[in-house]
Amino acid sequence: MGLTRQVISTLTNEGVDVMGPSTLAYHYPDQNIVSGSLLTVEANHFGVLKSRGAVLDVYDTGQFPIQTPDKPILGSFVPAFFGGQSPWQYEVLYINRAKLLVRNTGVATSAEMAEMAYQVEYYVHVDTKDGALKLVTHMPFTKHFILTDEVAGYAGPVVEQAINQVVQVTPMERVNEKIHDIVELVKGHLGEFLGVYGITLNDAKVLILPKDERMRELISLRAFGLSELDAVRYYLALKMAEKGLVSAPNAAVGQPYVIGGATLGTFPVPAVTSPAATSTA
């Protein structure tokens, strides 16, 4: 039975687009695409046509009949190997042109070697046909998809290096004073790196916090103008108040807690008589 022509699209039979907000690229799974099939490219996609490893063409929005070209854009094929008649086997790759959100998380160390947790969120998209060509050339597919999580995996070391470049020489309490410099550094390194894959970086946001929750609360208290000692006292008082201890205010001001005129913690300790002295008596 001969192969039948078909309509190639990212839409399912129910009209749902398989390329969601976390899909950067999609490999059409049918291997029986033949010359004359109709390739449909949606408004927010690019279409890339390949045959036996060679990129034949990159398509913008519209519908296009698949036809054998004279020569490929990228790669090569030898029809003479098949006696002058090549049994074409086509592949269709779809590239998402919409802006997609990518997220990286990790841990950096401050000048005091304190652990700082960071979260970087940025928007990316493929802007041109040349970008689509770079993407399918340099970034491999996992099964039939390239997801934003995979982009984050590629970009992770670049993000970590850019953040550590500033954080490692900055005291923990002053890291957020450098946040603008960190954001610009991340955008510069990340934009250059993603450009190799044909991906355009739109914007980036960086959030850096002490990894230890206790340190976050102490720094928040320091932000009110408290000294280091007062911050520790107020932190202790807050924790005591959470437990319902009435002595919490005393802990905050560093004063002993008094009940009925007796100060807790200052009761006299009776003298201990040694066994030897007792036996002698």
Give a verbal description of the structure.
By secondary structure, the chain is an alpha+beta fold. The chain is 30% helix and 26% strand. The protein folds into three domains: 7-96, no CATH class; 100-131 and 140-211, Band 7 domain (Tetrahydropterin Synthase, Chain A, 2-Layer Sandwich), CATH 3.30.479.30; 215-261, no CATH class. Helix 2 packs across helix 3 and helix 4 (213-222) packs across helix 5. It is elongated, with a radius of gyration of 33 Å. The termini are far apart. Residues 77-87, 265-269 and 274-281 have low confidence and may be disordered.
User: What's the helical proportion of residues?
Assistant: 25-40%
End-to-end Cα distance = 117 Å
Mean pLDDT: 81
Instruction: Tell me the CATH topology of the largest domain.
Output: Tetrahydropterin Synthase, Chain A
Tell me the series of helices and strands, N- to C-terminal. EEEEEEEEEHEHHEHHHEEH
User: What's the domain count?
Assistant: 3
| Category by helix and strand content | alpha+beta
CATH architecture heading of the largest domain: 2-Layer Sandwich
Q: Bin the strand percentage.
A: 25-35%
Query: Segments where pLDDT lies below 50 for 5+ residues?
Result: 77-87, 265-269, 274-281
Strand order of the largest sheet: 5-4-7-2-10
User: Which sheet architecture does the biggest sheet show?
Assistant: 5 strands, antiparallel
Rg (CA only): 33 Å
Shape descriptor? elongated
CATH H level, superfamily name of the largest domain: Band 7 domain
Number of helices: 7
What is the class of the largest domain in the CATH system?
Alpha Beta
Strand tally? 13
